[in-house]
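Hey L., structure's done. Input below.
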Amino acid sequence: MAASPPFGSTGQMLRKKCAFSDFIKMIYDKYSGVKVFGLFDMTTKMFVIRDPELIKKITVKDFEYFINRRSSFGENKDNDNGILLSNTLVMLNDQRWRDMRAIFSPAFTGSKMRAMFELIAKYSDVMVRVLKEQASETGYMDYDMKDCLSRVANDIVATCAFGLQVESLESRENEFYMMGKQLMNFNRITVMIRMIAFGLLPGLMAKLGFDIIDAEHSRYFTKIIMDAVRTREIQGIVRPDMIHLLMQARKGVLRNQKETAEDNAGFATVEESDVGKSVVNNKTITETEFVAQCLIFFLAGFDSVSSGMVFMVYELAINPNVQRRLFEEIMETNHQLGGKPLTYDTLQQMKYMDMMVSESLRMWPIPAFDRKCVRDYVVDDGAGLKFTIDAGDCIWVPVHGIHRDPKYYPNPEKFDPERFRDENKATIDTTMYLPFGMGPRNCIGSRFALMEMKAIMYALLLNFSIERNEKTLVPMRLAKGFAGLNGEGGIHLRLQLRR
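Output:
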């Protein structure tokens, strides 16, 4: 693919000419007849993999060649370099990643999510109360749903990760939310400059001690996390949240438990590999490493999970037949509960809810995920395709393009939860369903994300119908640049109180 300095083939994204998802779809369709093609992302050589067998081979069978993700923050193989983002599980390399994945994996099992569900259920009641109060005068409220649901996701992470009670729908300028919003604003000019500098000179930027995260934000979240840890240790406080689980993991007392069918959070759940199930002894976790894992949990919840929920409510608004069907299942479930609170197990038994969530994650997934080649790798499909991916080169798996490919999903632009009906699941090539990635470096928090999205959808639809308003974009136009997945100008919808 054509490239020009200094941005390579991806300059139009950095210049905010297109959205990341649209870029991935465009290049995926442009090279529809090939299994793999190449481009440059700034100075990094990228191989874009379109072929199912090759995707599976690289991410699973030959994982050892592609153990690392592409790092934009400099190499950090052996020692804590003090840079928060490069110490997150997402960015760690080689043995440090293996150890950290194994240590923290038990915190994200189905049994741990079941224990944490009560926190989300309690927050859902708060969310509904506030939204009802805001809609009480007219019977409805119009929202930019990205703003609304990022506040919801922020508050859930606050309670589930940090042990904080924050009500951002009501207290709109609270410090925790505002600091998180600033942290997630990657379109700020200072952040863009640092991202470009890291992309061009990652090693130098790391040696100079630069971080993409502002020092102010780093200090703020570090203080919150470590103050919570010290308070709990001194006062013996036990709370079923992520800080407690990570504290247990840090002490080495957390172990993987055998998963049961009831622990599965739905079709999109990714399974933990042997790497995550291994046991690590005598591993000391530094304060920076500990804070970094809490921080990446916050970042994923604030942006990725909130984006997932935003596009769900959008699809429900423009597909009222799907919304009606889901509401019927919610009402039936609520009747069966007989006034008792929703439970984790009851939520997982809701088949149409899982079908809707699975389809939404198909239509609006992460645009792509990457892997970095750690030693020369020969691609040979046995049918004439043979070349070498050199150590240091990277690959992209174009998830958004794959999920919109009619070869794998007939009529892919249609929002159709029936694709994921039990009798239809067997026809889906799971190699080409990748909302949480694939292989040992898949998303460690898939169970938490699915639990949160389903619980919020349940509470919302039980109390509100989701409708278009005069600002609703149909068809969707995505926000350009590297901003998180969002509609151009926001995603505007109406929450109408149910009578």
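Strands lie at 36-41, 44-49, 140-144, 369-372, 377-380, 386-389, 394-397, 464-468, 492-497. The longest strand covers residues 36-41.

-- N.
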